[in-house]
Amino acid sequence: MTEQTALKVMVVDDHPMWRDAVARDLAEAGFEVVATAGDGPQAVRRAQAAAPDVLVLDLNLPGLPGVQVCKELVGANPALRVLVLSASGEHADVLEAVKSGATGYLLKSASTEELLDAVRRTAAGDAVFTPGLAGLVLGEYRRLATEPAPATPDEPGAPQLTDRETEVLRLVAKGLSYKQIAERLVISHRTVQNHVQNTLGKLQLHNRVELVRYAIERGLDEV
Fold this sequence. Notes:
- One of its GO terms (biological process) is regulation of DNA-templated transcription.
- Residues 154-219 form the HTH luxR-type domain.
- The chain is an alpha/beta fold.
- It has two domains: 8-140, Rossmann fold (3-Layer(aba) Sandwich); 163-218, Winged helix-like DNA-binding domain superfamily/Winged helix DNA-binding domain (Arc Repressor Mutant, subunit A, Orthogonal Bundle), CATH 1.10.10.
- It contains eleven helices and five strands.
- The chain starts with a helix and ends in a 6-residue tail after the last helix.
C-alpha cells in the first residue's frame, strides 16, 4: 500500500451520501483523502488549498459546472490529474470533459474495485475510461486531426524532439499507457513521465489530450 498512501485524493460531488461513500472507499484502500466539496466554487477553492494528486470529479455541480472546475484547476496546475466520475455516458459530456483537461472518465455504475484501479492509474498518468468510451475519445482525436491546424508563427523553428521523446510520443498517440510504454522501451515509468513532461514543455502543450492531437496530426500514430 506504500504507493497508495502517498497519493492525495479529493472527491467532488453534490450528493453528500455518494461523496462520503466514495471518500470512505478511497480512505479504506489507503489513499489520503485531503478534501471533499459539494459545489463548483467550493471545489476550486479547496483543491487549490489541499493540492490533491487526483481529483475525482462529478460533472453536474451547482455554482460552477464540473468541466469549468476541471478547466480552471488544470489550467492553474497542469500536473493535476482529474478523473471524472459521472452518471452520464453521453458522448458530448465525455468529450467536453476530456477537452477541459480530464485524464479519465468513469461511469458511476463502476464497481469500487474499478474506481480504486482508475484512481491509481490516473495518478500514474494513464488515460482511464469506462469500456467503450476510450474508442470514442480516440475517434475524436482523429477527427480533430483532420481539421487544419492553427497557424503557428514559429513553425519553421519548431522545437526539436530527441529520438527517445519522439518514440515515446508515438506510443502515447497509439493509446499505450505510461506503464506499457515503459515495458515496451525497457525504461522506468518515471523516465516515461519525464519524457512526456519535457515534450509538453518543448511543444508548449498543456496535457496529454493536446499531445495526442499533435502526434496524430503528424501521423505518428500510424508509424
